[in-house]
Amino acid sequence: METVATQHAEYNLDAMRGSAYKASSLLKAMGNADRLMLLCQLSQGEHCVSDLEQKVGIGQPTLSQQLGVLREEMLVATRRDGKQIYYRVASAPVLAVLQVLYAQFCAPRPPFNDEAD
């Protein structure tokens, strides 16, 4: 059976290092509970700041700080409509990671049954 190491044996080490850096940057940006909650909410669609504050339950100073980090890392994009600023997820890798996290930690699971069928 072919292993992951075998599949990537010919993968250029510099390219691998670059990919590892990108992945670790993404995981670092997502590795904060407040930012993760914001990204989960934004994965459902675009939201303005006041909606995010209400739905996620993060106060304004922290919310602004965390949205700033997500913007800086280019994980979210914004648009302005009058006085409102709307946020949306702007990264396909973020959505892919969120799907895995949802499946592992949030999706309903069948009850454990220790009896063999």
> CATH first level of one domain: which class?
Mainly Alpha
CATH topology (level 3) name of one domain: Arc Repressor Mutant, subunit A
Please describe the biggest sheet, giving its number of strands, its sense, and whether it closes into a barrel: 3 strands, antiparallel
Please indicate the percent range of residues in DSSP E strands (runs of 2 or more): 5-15%
Give a quick summary of the entry:
This protein is 58% helix and 12% strand.
Note the main attributes of this structure.
about 120 residues; mainly alpha; Arc Repressor Mutant, subunit A; 6 helices; about 60% helix; membrane; WH_DNA-bd_sf; transmembrane; Metalloregulator ArsR/SmtB family transcription factor; transmembrane helix
Map the helices and strands:
Elements: H1 4-7, H2 13-30, H3 33-42, E1 47-48, H4 49-56, H5 60-72, E2 76-81, E3 84-89, H6 92-106
Antiparallel strand pairs: 1-3, 2-3
